[in-house]
Design goal:
This protein is an alpha/beta fold. Helices cover 36% and strands 12% of the residues. It has 9 helices and 7 strands.
Length: 218
C-alpha cells in the first residue's frame, strides 16, 4: 500500500482503464520513494518487520508506540518519536496498533490537522482507529493526498460511503493478512495452541496470560 500510494498506482490504473495515457498529468508531482518518510504507529512484531523492509527501500522510518524505546526502534532501523512529531513529518502514516479505548478514533479531525499536507494514511489494523468522517473531509479538501484502507469502521464498506467513489482511495476487504501460506500457518498455530493448552503448557500465542498462571513455562 505504501508503494501504491507513492507511485499513484490506483490513480494510473483507473486512468488507463478510462482511456487516458499520460504519466505526468495523471500522476502529478511524484516524490522518489527514498526521499520520503514512513511513520509507523504501533511498533509490535509487524511494525518492526515493516520498518526493516521500508529501510531496505531507502525510506526514513519513524516509529511511535507507548512501549517502543529508542534502542528498540534503532535496532530495526527506525527512530522513536512522539505521535505529534510522527504525524507532522511522515509522508505515509501506517496504523498497526491495537484497538482499545485509548486508540479509538486515534485519527480524527485534531490529529489529521497535525499531519503533513498531502500525506497518505494507511490502515491495516482496525477500522475504528480512524474517524472516517474526518478522513473523508481531509481527502475531499486535499488536506491529505490519499488513503489506503484494508479495514473500515463498518465492514463491508457501505455502498453509500463516500470512500467508494474517491479516486485517491484504495480499498481492500480486510485482506492484508491473507495468502495461501499465511492461512495455512494460522490454522496450524491455532491447532498447536489448543494442544499446548490441553497439555497444561503455555501456548505460543496468548491474549490473556494472567488468566492461567498454572501454565508451565516449559
Amino acid at each position: 500500500m505504501v508503494l501504491a500510494c507513492n507511485r499513484r498506482l490506483f490513480v494510473y490504473d483507473r486512468a488507463v482503464h478510462a482511456g487516458t495515457w499520460d504519466a505526468i498529468r495523471t500522476g502529478g508531482e511524484l516524490p522518489r520513494l527514498r526521499e520520503t518518510t514512513l511513520g509507523i504507529v504501533g511498533f509490535g512484531s509487524i511494525g518492526r518487520l515493516l520498518a526493516r523492509k521500508a529501510g531496505a527501500l531507502g525510506l526514513r522510518v519513524l516509529a511511535h508506540s507507548p512501549r517502543s524505546a529508542p534502542a528498540l526502534a534503532a535496532a530495526h532501523g527506525a527512530e522513536a518519536v512522539g505521535l505529534e512529531a510522527l504525524l507532522g513529518a511522515s509522508d505515509y502514516v501506517v496504523l498497526l496498533c491495537p484497538l482499545n479505548a485509548r486508540t479509538r478514533h486515534l485519527i480524527r479531525a485534531e490529529t489529521v490537522a497535525l499531519m503533513k499536507p498531502g500525506a497518505c494514511l494507511i490502515n491495516v489494523s482496525r477500522g475504528p482507529l480512524v474517524d472516517e468522517a474526518a478522513l473523508i473531509d481531509a481527502l475531499a479538501s486535499g488536506r491529505l493526498g490519499g488513503a489506503a484502507l484494508d479495514v473500515a469502521e463498518q465492514e463491508p464498506v457501505p455502498p453509500d460511503s463516500a470512500l467508494r467513489g474517491m479516486p485517491n482511495v484504495v480499498l481492500t476487504p480486510h485482506a492484508a493478512y491473507y495468502s495461501t501460506a499465511s492461512q495455512r500457518d494460522l490454522q496450524t498455530l491455532v491447532a498447536r495452541n489448543v494442544v499446548e493448552a490441553l497439555a497444561g503448557r503455555r501456548p505460543a500465542a496468548v491474549l490473556n496470560p494472567e488468566a492461567s498462571p498454572r501454565w508451565a513455562e516449559g
